[in-house]
Amino acid sequence: MRKLLLPLLAVVALAACRKDLVCPQGETDCGGKCVSLQTDAANCGACAHACGSLEACSGGACGCAADVASCGGACTDLARDAANCGACGAACAAAQYCTTAGGSTSCTASCPTGFTACGRACVDVTSDSRSCGACGHVCTRGESCVNGACGADIQVACFSTSDVRPVTADLTAAGDPRLAYGNPTVLALANGVVFAASGYPATVAAIPLDGRATTHVVLTGNDLEGILAYGGAVLISNADAGTLVVLDAASGAVRDELVLPGDAPNPHDIAVVGSTAYVALTGYGPGGVKATLSGQAIAKIDLSPLAACLADASPPSCASGEPCPAGRSCRGGECRLPCGVVSGAIDLMQVPGTADGGAGGYPFPGQLAVRDSKIYAPLANLKLADCGGGYMEYCEPAGHGKLAIIDAAAGDATSAIDLGADCRNPGDVDVYGSTLWVSCGSFLYPTEAPGRVVALDVSGAPTLAGAAVDVSKIVPWSLAFCGGVGYVTDSASGAIVRFDPLSRAADAPVTVCPILPPSKFTFASDIVCR
Asked: Which tens digit of pLDDT belongs to each residue from 179-198?
């Protein structure tokens, strides 16, 4: 269960509060900013040693960028250089432009529709990485231009260094880390903004990919475990408070906070089908906030009131103590409309096959995925054990991991299947095409639960599909697919492993989240794709 790990990390948050700048391993203080001299184009090999506009920094040395040619020893952009249009020495006439319109590079007398004249080049400023949004606005290495805004293709939450780091598809740095104003646990990406939910303290940061300033809001408690951008709102699972918080994505204001069912729900991931949100209630075992087992359900929230709630721009005041009109409740001094209504919960304890009860196992849902109208919830089939130092909790696999399936189109008909011997203590889940992928493994029992990613064909009845991906060099945590490549973060380090979903081959781990001295701990907590 993810809840087990966070109390062990509180010391990391304290390290981030030091006044003196202490750079993580592999980074250098250059004028009060931590950078990698190996990859930072503004500080390549040494502080203030900047690469040219058509150069990239690799291994601490400047060289022509990957999509740039060398003509006579000079870095040359053959797609935009009228003196070298498509090939070195292929010059356009004096009044012509160099363009890639039509799929090939050629000279033209005027820029076609949809292209802008930037000097003597015709470019699409909505997608051109060297003139993104405007002529001459260059995206940094590892960023792409989407709808006229630069942004890294992959964003990684680094819990220990309290930031979100942009990386390329090959997991090299693609820009400066962005402060998350807390220790980020989960990420969501919508409309060019990364939303990072943190613990210690419970904070939601809105980080625009175009470089605008980050804004943030502090919630109650110290543990945010789920986040989803939906319908102009950001939905956040507040595990400490047992609530679903609704933020206005545009303003960052808290519009509602819905109390989830159960006396200790411990909410985690969120999924939406139609206008209904499904929230995984992990619950607690003895040793947590309760003396007995509780939780293990999927809450349902009707979000049909959300649009009216967000549009409620001038609600009546309730600061004077006057009662609110019918249908409204007092929140933050305002009589606000509800953003959602809790409509019930699906008790996983009542679904056959969700855990090996005879071996002491109980189903603990954490993460969710949606395909068509079905919600898929991997279940950590765990039994009570000594988790270390005599601390008793549900932390040891009682058997194979399970998968609960909820069919929203069939009245929330619920079933469960066994994830097989390669999946013990399942964690994250993602859908890529018609295949469902589940990360599995445990840092408490690595010999019993080595790191694997299992695949299931969900084009019909879910069935295991092919060999599992061997990621035993890490303890799998978050899972995502970016550009047809799978990525799994490590809960025991700052590393991420890439794998090919076709061949099932995995690369060696690449460290993305560094260690912040004097701590000896680091953690890649989540990953999202643009």
From this structure: 999 999 999 999 889 999 99
Query: How far apart are alpha carbons 42 and 51 in whole angstroms?
Result: 6
Can you tell me whether residue 365 is helix, strand or coil? Answer: strand
What is the chain's mean pLDDT, rounded? Answer: 88
The pLDDT value given to residue 388: 73
CB 398 within 8 A of CB 424: no
Tell me the CB-side half-sphere exposure of residue 56, using CA atoms within 13 A.
18
Rounded-to-integer distance, Cα 104 and Cα 213, Å? 38
Q: How far is CA 376 from CA 65, 309, 371, 413, 438, in A?
A: 42, 29, 8, 12, 10
> Quick check: 3 pLDDT over 50?
no
0.90 surpassed by pTM: no
- 130-147: b (≥16 Cβ within 10 Å) or e: bbbeeeebebbbbbbbbe
Q: Are 442 and 427 in contact (CB under 8 A)?
A: no
3-state secondary structure of 14: helix
Nearest-5° angle of CA 252, CA 367, CA 398?
150
